[in-house]
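Quick review question:
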């Protein structure tokens, strides 16, 4: 469950620590049930909303990648990579 994961992060990263996340936000029902997808059309904004109270966004980059399915078929996607710094005191 992506929301449970995001809500747990403040307990896993100590104040001053870094959090690195990379995601293409490609939701698939076979891995994550639709009701657990974060954001209603804007997963990136929901990610920021979940982390902002505990983390400061330091950097965001686009990370293109290619998945080879077979000799004649490739998928080109772009993930976002983010670096966050934990703020505040221990949770």
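Suggested answer, residue by residue:
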């Amino acid at each position: 469950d992506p929301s449970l994961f995001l809500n747990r992060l403040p307990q896993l990263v100590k104040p001053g620590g870094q959090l690195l996340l990379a995601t293409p936000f490609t939701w698939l029902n076979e891995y994550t049930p639709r009701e657990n997808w974060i954001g209603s059309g804007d997963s990136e904004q929901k990610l920021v909303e979940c982390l902002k109270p505990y983390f400061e966004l330091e950097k965001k980059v686009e990370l293109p990648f290619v998945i080879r399915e077979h000799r004649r078929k490739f998928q080109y996607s772009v993930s976002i990579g983010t670096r966050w710094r934990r703020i505040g005191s221990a949770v």
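Why it works: The CA atoms of residues 65 and 77 lie 6 Å apart. The first strand starts at residue 18 and ends at 23.
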